[in-house]
Write a structure and sequence with these properties.
Helix content: 55-70%
Oligomer: single chain
CATH class: Mainly Alpha
CATH superfamily: Chitosanase, subunit A, domain 1
Order of helices and strands: HEEHHHHHHH
CATH topology: Chitosanase, subunit A, domain 1
Strand order of the largest sheet: 1-2
Structural class: mainly alpha
Strand content: under 5%
CATH architecture: Up-down Bundle
Shape: globular
Largest sheet: 2 strands, antiparallel
Number of strands: 2
Length: 164
């Protein structure tokens, strides 16, 4: 499997344009915050961002930057989805905790080596557990918690496919 599969899955979780007052990311379209869009060269109106523009940003800002091509797909998808939903630093720390690496929020050589040496089943499920613990500890839980848990449930279903 590849980035194309991962991005289709993530886009299945993400909706269109949103500017929810409880979302610290501000304006968002296709799951991409205005800050991430601007950092990655998109300077148009967020409501006007199309799917293809979003996919280009996803690949650069989340997939490639976090070295997802260098890890087993089952793990890469969970990292990628975590990056999109709660930022690369958080997703990296969830992975690093799951593999017993230094939790610095940056996927470097050590993280990649430990990821590839680990049992992907344990990594994926430990990452999802870290993520659920994170969700319940943040103040936006009351507004977004149901959607986040549904997202993790969907990701568990993907994990069953990816790890088979």
């Amino acid at each position: 499997m590849s980035f194309d599969v991962a991005v289709d899955r993530v886009l299945g979780h993400e909706g269109g344009y949103v500017n929810h007052p409880e979302d610290p990311g501000g304006e968002t379209n296709w799951g991409i915050t205005i800050g991430t869009a601007r950092e990655n060269g998109y300077h148009g109106d967020m409501r006007s961002m199309n799917r293809n523009e979003a996919i280009v940003i996803y690949k650069r800002a989340f997939w490639t930057r976090n070295r997802c091509d260098e890890m087993p797909f089952a793990v890469a998808f969970q990292v990628f989805d975590g990056c999109v939903n709660h930022g690369a630093g958080n997703a990296s720390r969830w992975l690093q905790k799951a593999i017993g690496a230094v939790s610095d929020g940056v996927i470097g050589k050590e993280t990649i080596a430990k990821t590839n040496a680990a049992d992907p089943v344990k990594v994926v499920f430990n990452m999802m557990a870290e993520r659920m613990t994170f969700y319940t500890a943040i103040k936006q839980w009351d507004h977004f918690g149901r959607g986040w848990i549904n997202r993790i449930a969907g990701n568990a279903r993907y994990a069953a496919i990816d790890l088979a």
